[in-house]
Design goal:
single chain, 449 residues, alpha+beta, 2,3-Dihydroxybiphenyl 1,2-Dioxygenase, domain 1, two-stranded antiparallel ribbon, 15% strand, globular, binds 2-oxoadipic acid, binds nickel (II) ion
Length: 449
């Protein structure tokens, strides 16, 4: 089959993201309310700030904003994770980053499947935060065996998804009709089912060990547990959420509000209590699925990230000063000015030439001062482990397992996945370097600043 009849992975991802959003809107109506609110606030934000609007247009953010979402799923076994990796690869999504959540008492470790390059990200930056259960963190041996047994028996992908994966590998792609079928059949994996796959007794035992364990083990598949739109003003949305009937989480995770937004800020609304039926016919409820919003800011270099982590750690130390105040005070130590962030190499930038040719004999700083080169912040496309733990916990309660949390197990995760995860810092550094090269400069020029 000639490859020209195939649709691009970007196109398949866009169709999948749209389909998942439509499904979640039906399943969780308040997600629809949240989408409307975010759209309104985004519109007001750009209307009030023409400079922001110009910038969002120039780096294609504005166009992608309306469709930009991330979702989250929780898998039970290495086999499920490996198949997910293959399924997401068809959509141009690849595992980036390793997140160890066990430090926060959550028995999973995670990665994010996402598009990698600029073109794919501007087409549709859909990402899925994907967690894998660490059964070794279920303390009770008998219960662990039960969980493993239940998980081994289930098959989360439809036969059509598997056939189409094979077809994709054989032909090197999918036609438009095959892609549509792949999207609709793969969506089934992430659908909510009110029929649990265990008895009431098993559910309650697993739930007592950890609510997350029950959520992962007791259902036919890894239902999408939230889908998150991106806002340009998270504080405004957070404030308006109660008015629209959503119970917002008490605090926004991540850095404080800034002139130059850093990394990622997130908040969520409380999970729904949904009715379920156990295999023995008993009725019950399950609380897992919720809504979340995010505001994305500039990607930090390893140096900037180390400073962020240090400051956040300070803020997390208990004190009588209110959290918001501690956060704002601690982050005074972080420059809040694009020039400074760039000069101190705390953040990543994309460089662009505004003249047809590079004026000779000038330093990068001169070129920027003269306006011949502009430096635009690179957006952070990933997640933050401390924030993720906060999001997990806000929907699980503060419950921690009695099991002593073991050290991170990146090697085991990558073995399950079947490939190493990519290092996000390498990706941002490569974007910055490529932009410099296009301008006709090299990384050395940056270092000479
Ligand atoms: C994932 C929580 C993490 C985020 O945005 O940091 C996350 C989950 O609850 O499964 O989605
Ligand atoms: Ni999330």
């Amino acid at each position: 089959m000639p490859p020209c009849s195939h649709v691009s992975p970007d196109e398949i991802r866009s169709r999948f993201a749209n389909a998942m959003s439509a499904m979640y809107r039906q399943e969780v109506p308040s997600y629809g309310t949240l989408l409307d609110l975010v759209k309104e606030v985004n519109q007001q934000t750009v209307d009030a700030d023409p400079v922001l609007k110009m910038r969002l247009n120039s780096d294609h953010t504005y166009a992608r904003l309306d469709v930009e979402r991330h979702g989250a799923i929780r898998l039970g076994t290495p086999r499920e994770l490996e198949t997910c990796r293959k399924v997401f690869a068809v959509m141009g999504m690849f595992p980036v980053g390793y997140y160890d959540l066990s430090v926060a008492g959550i028995p999973v470790h995670s990665t994010a499947f996402r598009p990698l390059d600029d073109a794919a990200l501007s087409r549709n930056p859909f990402r899925i935060f994907t967690s894998l259960l660490r059964p070794e963190l279920i303390a009770d041996e008998g219960l662990r065996q039960t969980a493993m047994h239940v998980l081994q028996k289930r098959e989360i992908f439809t036969p059509e998804t598997k056939n189409l994966l094979e077809l994709h590998d054989r032909n090197g792609g999918l036609t438009s009709a095959e892609a549509d079928r792949f999207v609709s059949k793969t969506l089934e994996t992430f659908r909510w089912h009110r029929e649990a796959s265990v008895s009431a007794n098993t559910y309650h035992r697993l739930h007592a060990a950890h609510r997350l364990v029950a959520d992962i083990v007791c259902f036919k598949g890894p239902h999408v547990n939230h889908l998150t739109p991106r806002t340009l003003d998270i504080d405004a949305v957070q404030e308006l959420m109660p008015e629209r009937g959503m119970q917002a989480k008490a605090r926004v995770e991540g850095p404080p509000r800034r002139l130059v937004p850093l990394l990622l800020r997130q908040t969520s609304f409380a999970a729904l209590k949904e009715e379920i039926i156990f295999t023995d016919g008993e009725a019950g409820t399950h609380t897992a699925r919720f809504g979340e919003i995010e505001q994305r800011g500039i990607a930090l270099t390893p140096k900037g990230r180390a400073l962020y982590d240090t400051l956040l750690e300070q803020v997390r130390q208990e004190s009588t000063t209110p959290y918001e105040q501690r956060l704002a005070e601690a982050f005074r130590a972080f420059p809040d000015d694009e020039q400074e962030l760039r000069r101190q190499k705390l953040a990543f930038f994309r460089y662009r030439l505004t003249t047809p040719t590079l004026p000779a004999g000038r330093s990068l700083e001169d070129l920027i001062a003269e306006g011949a080169v502009i430096a635009v912040p690179i957006t952070y496309e990933d997640f933050l482990p401390v924030s993720a733990a906060g999001i997990f916990q806000s929907n699980l309660g503060e419950h921690k397992t009695a099991a002593t949390m073991q050290a991170a197990s990146r090697t085991a995760f990558e073995k399950a996945l079947g490939t190493p995860v990519q290092n996000e810092m390498v990706l941002y550094a490569a974007m910055q370097a490529a932009s410099l090269e296009q301008v006709g400069l090299t990384e050395t020029e940056l270092c000479n600043v």
